[in-house]
Amino acid sequence: MRLALIGFGNVAQEFARILLEKEKEWAVEYYEGFRVVAVSTRGKGSLVNPEGIDLRRALLDLHEGGSFSPENPERARVSSLDIIGLDFVDAIIETTTLDIAGGQPATDHLRSALSRGKHAITTNKGPIAFAYRDLQALAASVGKAFLFEGTVLDGAPVFNLVRENLPGCRITGFSGILNGTTNYILTRMEEGEGFAAALETAQKYGWAEADPSMDIDGWDAAVKVTALLNVLMGAGITPGDIDRQGIGGITLETVREARSRGQAIRLLCEGALVEGKPVGRVAPVHLPADHSLAKIRGTSSALTLKTDLAGELTVQIREPKIRETAYAVVADLLTVARRKR
Ligand code: HSE
What we know:
Elements: E1 2-6, H1 10-29, E2 35-40, E3 46-48, H2 55-65, E4 75-76, H3 80-85, E5 91-94, H4 106-115, E6 119-122, H5 125-142, E7 146-147, H6 159-165, E8 171-177, H7 180-190, H8 195-204, H9 213-216, H10 219-233, E9 243-244, H11 252-260, E10 263-274, E11 277-288, E12 301-307, E13 312-317, H12 322-340
Parallel strand pairs: 1-2, 1-5, 5-6, 6-7, 9-11
Antiparallel strand pairs: 2-3, 3-4, 8-10, 8-12, 10-11, 12-13
Helix pairs in contact: 1-12, 4-5, 5-10, 7-8
The chain binds L-homoserine.
Residues 179-181, 207-209, 215, 220 line the site of L-homoserine.
């Protein structure tokens, strides 16, 4: 399968490293293997080679100079849409950054790929929150895969779990902690660290969104709640429909007071159908310290799914790193390869 990487930030670079580690193993198991034939970025240049990009060189270029070297023979002056249109691209892996206003340009990238009969995999929450129904219908009409496991709970299975392992079940609601940055800040504050210092660490380690107000004001969490409601419960809503409150108003004093009452503050995400209408909420709540979600600390996340036939199931991921998010891309890619096989 010939892949185009649209976006080459932390997640896509880690995916490239995993591909280099596993290529021999996968070439046997998924008999034709995988080859990256194009890479497109907004500010680091683009690469094209129908025979296969030299990923080691691409990673080294970025490590040494922050962009693809002008001497790199694979360097090409092409836009991301040009790359998606190349006839030797079979699938795109879209990892551009989140746009909260309308999920662009990621939605256009996915639409363009699917309408040209290519598989589309993304870790970008925007398209799922703004255009899920359209993209899903398009994928079904062309018989190609549209997969997005990395959008919620990093590499832990959520959408794949429901699709592959809960046949016949209806998801009736969910609750959880879905934003690592705010959870890290809240738990650091429990240990006495200030808001700003904790946020700085979250940014340093690359957990925070490029614009950290997306995390602090609850937008990232609201987008994830929207994605879950759209995909698992057929909602057809956008993030503006979520009742949203961030953690900007929480001070060390608030956290200390909660602790003295035996409580922990967590940014709780919830979704349900109320009288058939989808309802989503993101808000900081006081939980008893022995509540299962109060025990989710640092950048860890957890999601409890309520179902009509299989009871309540919880998926939890502990302190995910970039490799775990990149694994979501791997899981989606191998799902496509298994279907082809
Ligand atoms: N900014 C996001 C978070 C990244 O903190 O959870 C993962 O979606």
